[in-house]
Specification:
By secondary structure, the chain is of the alpha+beta class. The protein contains 13 helices and ten strands. Helix content is 47%, strand content 15%. A hairpin with a 5-residue loop joins β2 and β3.
Length: 344
Amino acid sequence: MIPSKWTTLLTELKLPDYPHKDVKWTDCLVVNSVATIPAGLRASEYPKPNRGCNLILLGRKGVPQYFVKVRPAWDQRLIRATGIRERLCNDPILREVVPWTKGLRNREVTIQASKMVPGHTFDRIMPNNADRWRESVNDILRVTSLLTKRSVALLPDLSVGGGGIDVANAAVENLEYLATLGFPRRHLDSLEAVLRSAGTLPSIPQHGDLWPSNIVRYRRRWWLLDYEDFGQIRVPLYDMYHLLRSCMVQQTRRAEALQGPVWVEMLSSANAAAATGREIIGYAARELSLEPRQVLGTLGYYLSDIAVRIRRRGNPQAIYGPFLEDLVSFCYDNQSFLDSWAVW
């Protein structure tokens, strides 16, 4: 049974189009639960990230209507993400990109409710045809670009845009963490040189978790989900790399029923997906007037940052291992990748 305090908070949100005056626990379906939320504990006392649960709030005839995240009251990631989504979804331009969202909290929990988008996630409908795949990815990247550009004006208090960003400085903490894992010194030196060579680039807020499961196609539009990391990364091309990596790895597994080769090596291969990926990277780089050394620096930043993020979340080696393999391969001979792409 869902605690009455939770359903009271949901009722106070006054959810648009919800068919009942009060939210009932019988209309709440628990879809994911990571430990309980006991009262009175401080953040440092919780051993698990994302402690809490996710709910689906059912509307008429049991049709899913809202997706609800329930977390401890101190969960600053969800509080921040909710504030971002509330402002973005009320923008006339972005209301068909960011689902309607609102949140509340009491002394025990913070709740985020967002309208469910009844379409299909991109991982379920990703085209096999290279031309159709390129068209879909470019459409998604255009929507993402619109989102980030609007966010600079809509979220000034979060300081998500403007100015420049020194790529090497942005990666300092990641390099320090990799060193604690025993990452080879020669690879760290190679990576640091690539990052320094990139210099200072335009600061562009990134979605931060742009992969196929966070992208929904509905009514001929692309909707973007999950904003916990939004704006925390400012290095350009990050979202593009993450989307390309996720798509290409999924396509390889689909075709070969295997984990597949290292992604950065896949980019240098002769198959159609790799050629399309290089074409997308080259186009994006030219749009930002980036030189090859700067593109190499943004790629190095992405590979190091995503590997560290996945590892820090406590994922098993089977999950974070491929990301570290990508980084090792990049550090081993990064210049050859750039030379082989020939997209500038």
